[in-house]
AHR protein (Melanocharis versteri), 362 residues
Amino acid sequence: ERGLYPLISSLPQALNGFVLVVTSEGLIFYSSHTIQDYLGFHQVDVMHQSVFELIHTEDQPEFRRNLHWALDPPLAPEGEPCAAAGKSLGSSAVIYKPDQLPTENSSFLERSFVCRFRCLLDNSSGFLALNLQGRLKFLHGQNKRSEDGSALPPQLALFAISTPLQPPSILQIRTKNMIFRTKHKLDFTPLACDAKGKIVLGYTEAELRMCGTGYQFVHAADTLYCAENHVRMMKTGESGLTVFRLLTKENRWKWVQANARLVYKNGKPEYIVVTQRPLVDEEGGEHLRKRSMHLPFTFATGEALLYQSAHPLPGFPDPFQGKGKPSKSKKPSCRHGGCSQKNGADARSLLGAVTRQDRALY
């Protein structure tokens, strides 16, 4: 068994897709970690969630149909719309006894169908068409009980390999190993970073979460540009491609091309997922020359309140003016209670993020 484990654990990486196990209720029982490479969702964020939250509304009936052993699920309750039924975990679940179902090796339980899944990656239009191929099998070890307390027999679940309907292009294959993803709160405070991002930026997740919002890692000249796209994302759900500089742990600026998307749970924004591709300095400089230089905030619409700037508007000070010599520290100055507030700026504001950066970085 020990000899087989490395082979089994590396199998999802060898596939052009990811493994998905969905219960008859529509609950994602398991997903391989490679789901992040295709849909942008982290494995932990989708497991034990309703699969219908990820599926295009028009494709939910097809997925629900394939969860039923006879491809004939019960109809939604009268007056309940189909889409709402898809999000109700128990709406299509029927408890069966094993002797009521065909044997596991029956061809009736084989499945092959196409559904559009929500995709957070910047190379899609919001959804990715996946071909799900597998079969219904009994899911053992659940230890579920009925209302009267009696033990329920194992029920069928869909075990499938999900692969993109359209094979990836040569360019996507070449750039796949360079792309990294980060997870943020709605104000852009970093929450998590994948393994590739830790290599590119050099930080651990604890260091990324150490102080304030994520804007303390953004170059001062790119801050308002990023904030403008942040506001757009909060309104539309997606930031669009954004090219800016991130501060690495080695105190160097790294150009990245990023696309941020809101992730919703129960109809409300829950967090932000950002897909980022490193750029060489020449590419970043070209984007900088093309960027329209205008102030995105009018300070009359209330948008600036998103960043909780406590500094008076008249006469913004030079962020780097100070009494005495510049700090020799190569890291942003953070204390145990958070980051210090300089020049009266709220530590969570855009201005506060810039004032915390060491002048030597520029």
